[in-house]
Amino acid sequence: MGEERLEGGGGGGVCRNP
């Protein structure tokens, strides 16, 4: 889906992954 890399994610840190 979205490829917005966010530091601090569960599955690598992509598209709002808590």
Topology readout:
Layout: no helix or strand
End-to-end CA span: 15 Å
The overall pLDDT average reads 58
Major beta sheet summary: none
Quaternary status: single chain
Overall morphology: globular
Strand content: under 5%
**Number of extended strands:** 0
> Count of DSSP helices?
0
Helix fraction bin: under 10%
Descriptive account of the structure:
With 18 residues, the chain is mostly loops. The protein has no helices and no strands. The chain is globular. The model has no long low-confidence stretch (mean pLDDT 58).
Q: Can you tag this structure with a few keywords?
A:
18 residues; single chain
Give a nutshell description of this structure.
The protein is low in regular secondary structure.
